[in-house]
Specification:
This protein is α+β, with helices and mostly antiparallel strands and about 325 residues long. The chain is built from 8 helices and 15 strands. The chain has helices spanning about 5-15, 25-45, 65-80, 145, 215-225, 240-250, 270-285, 315-320; strands spanning about 55, 65, 85-90, 95-100, 110-115, 125-135, 155-160, 165-170, 175-180, 185-190, 205, 235, 255-260, 290, 310-315. The structure holds 2,5-anhydro-1,6-di-O-phosphono-D-glucitol and manganese (II) ion (MN) (2 copies). One manganese (II) ion binds near residues 113, 116 and 274.
Length: about 325
Amino acid sequence: MIVTAQQHFTRQQQTQFPEAQGVFSWLLSAITLATKMIQAKVRQAGLLDVLGSAGDTNVQGEAQQKLDVYANQALLHCLGLRDSVAMLVSEENEEPVVFDRAPETGKYVVVFDPLDGSSNIDVNVSVGTIFSIYRRPDSQHDLQRVCLQAGSKQVAAGYVVYGSSTIMVYTTGSGVYGFTLDPAIGAYVLSHDNLRMPKQGMYYSVNEGQAHTFPDEYRRYLDRLRSGVLGHSYSTRYVGSLVADFHRTMLKGGVFLYPPTRQYQKGKLRLMYEANPLAFIAEQAGGMATDGYRRILDIEPENIHQRTPLILGSQMEVEAFGK
Ligand code: AHG
Ligand code: MN
Ligand code: MN
């Protein structure tokens, strides 16, 4: 008996958001549709003119890859067609995209990294999409306040890994569920029911090439992991696509870190559309996520593209930081 993502969204909504009358699951279906369009392009990347740079830079000052632009357009298009969307925030758009919708119709804000791991597209290494959904606060009509909510206010979060298979993992706050895209029927089918992250793992995941520029507390932490202070030695795995490194951590446990570096004094990863959604998923699966001092989900954002240090993974390894 197969359970599709659409069936699962509907079931989750009926139990958790009965007042949403199908609007919430309809919103999630816009995201899955966009990811199916993206994965189709990812799978043909070498054959289509979607490889390489788009010749432009995004608000991050990073060279946009053609697939970044395509993925962003797919999400903006599919989500823009849903009346329940009040606002969209994308890594690839400097400002939020605001829709003129009545507060009782435009109930949700969707925040996303349309294509994560862009540097890996041209070398056929897994890339992904990350999304996060907030309710539009009733009181505030101040646009900035509407999209700058702490991660603890998320109503849903998820990611898709375009890897050896295409897997979508999401949470609405009552557990984590994974779906594998079945190309034969074009549907995401439940494959990881109630995913739990191991309490400890065998891997740590960090860009060792930058380790000489990490703050001392990070270097001491990595030395302790290597020396077996947590009961065993560790292997290192680092794909360079956050979604792929995190998905492995979800299944195998361990810890992913992106510390402050000389180039990125506040860390490279973005709070709103990388750290927050994955922190929500990690905690729902029994894991943890901090910025070295605070729970990621407690951080009050100041701007939509702000960066944060990130320590994300199993409880044992994340708790051991700073000890
Ligand atoms: P994006 O492609 O959305 O800009 O994200 C890239 C991020 C993340 O996917 C990954 O963990 C990190 O960049 C890798 O950075 P380094 O190459 O500096 O290690
Ligand atoms: Mn990213
Ligand atoms: Mn990206």
